[in-house]
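Sequence in, structure out. Go.
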Amino acid sequence: MEPMEHVRLSGGALKNWFIAQLQDSLAVGILWLVGLLIIGVPWAPFWAVLGAVLQFVPQVGAVLGVIGPVLVTMFKWGDWEHPVYVLILYAVIAVVDGFLLQPYLMKRTTKVPMWVSILAPIVLGMIIPFWGVLLAPPILAVLYTYRAKYANNQLKTLP
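Output:
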């Protein structure tokens, strides 16, 4: 394989991963918006956009995205119930995103099986704590692109 073909193949895989990440961020932003509007959090559209943008930062981004709405609800209502509602919303979004949205979008755009996109960040996160989780999705996208390319080449060489 020529070096430029490697660059093209890897670049295409990373482009597809980035598209999946954009779609995931948009979906998470919509979930935040709907949930925050139901709870009645002030500036819900702002917090939803911030949550969508911070979705690009693995692990830490989602936590940073929930701090603002929790603080706003604490100061607005002065009780413990409304911040707990926001934390419950955060937990629901994290579960839906981690176990449904991201694996589905990765499978659809980069052809990575759902079980691999759930398991790989966990395993790599244990091996290389922060970087494993950060790098697992783009690495998977590139690996499965090369795997598909290799499978196509094997089929072409069959008589």
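Check: Residues 3-39 form the longest helix (37 residues). The chain has a mean pLDDT of 90.
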